[in-house]
Amino acid sequence: MKPEKARLVLAGLKEAGVNFAAGVPDAQFIQVYRMVAADPDIRYVGTANEAEAAGVAMGAWFGGMRPALIIATSGLLVATYHLARINLLHEVPLLIVIPYRGDLGDPRWMGLYQKTTEPALKAMDIPYRVVTRSADIARTIKDCQESARAWLRCAAVLLTEEALW
Amino acid sequence: MVTRFALLKELASIIPDDILIVASIGNNSGFWGQIKDREANLLHVTMGMCSATALGLALALPDRRVIALDADGNLTLNLGVLGTVANESPKNLTIIVMDNGNYLGSHKDEPGMPTATGGKMNLEGVGRQCGIASSSTVQDVESFRDKVQSALSRPGPHLIDARIEALDSDRPARAKRIADPRQNKYQFANYIEKATGVQIIGGGLGNFG
Predict the structure, then answer these.
(1) Which of A65, A93, B133, B197 could form a disulfide with A60 if both were Cys (CB 3.0 to 4.6 A apart)?
(2) Are A108 and B175 in contact (CB under 8 A)?
(3) pTM greater than the 0.90 cutoff
């Protein structure tokens, strides 16, 4: 991943007013994690798994923060039970940012996540946008954050190979 | 050994009004909601998420003391959170684990199945080795009161493993309806908004630029 693409993700988070983030690092997105963790305007909490991160983010939201959950496609599966509760029972808005492995154009074999990511989000009734152009990264993150806050629902941004690398 | 209900009644009698409580699902939320119905309660936080949610809340509001009312089955589902708590080290967080060593028994007349703490696991030791120096075990009302009061007067994080009876033999008759997760969300968030002046609920004010 090129640093300038990671900077676009960070810029989108900041434009969206994100001041708190939780997650587990993903190899393909590590530059974003490093930038978020180093950013003075964002409190980053690294957790032991993505379900824990979802809980931390929900607590931060109740404390008045604007949290983002930054997780891998595999991490979405780990967090599914907690995100289902958060989105469907508590109706708490978490912005979820996911580097989308397994989409068309991804040269690595990540077919598992092509089969699970969007169906999992649909099953949890979490609206999402798939971003395929780097020029759309920041705007989409901001739009999803605005909608999540307005609807009191989680919203996910899936950033594909074409957009990121 | 003591019951969950006895310890929750004691907790209700000693905590200041401004303490934020994050309670796990099941009898922790059910009993606490009946004993101490208050705006500063965040209830029904599910398996593996209670201490994590309390951690996020404590980090977001460093000037407010936060208590996680967790349970052994809940906590062990996501035990890694103790390492995260130790590393983040929020001074305002106390985790109380209602540890009955048992799954499901709290809703039955006989114990369900043992949790790890019903076997060899010792949560005080786990907490300490995760890096939470202030980790302790209590088994009666008096030591519970002392540990909670100590935790609320000293910088945390703190972990109090409250070993309780497997069954809630003194469970109270349901006297009132407990707010459901959505109703409780508005209640709690509105309380935090009033206390901090920060808008939590809402948005969507046309800022789509």
Answers:
(1) A65
(2) no
(3) yes
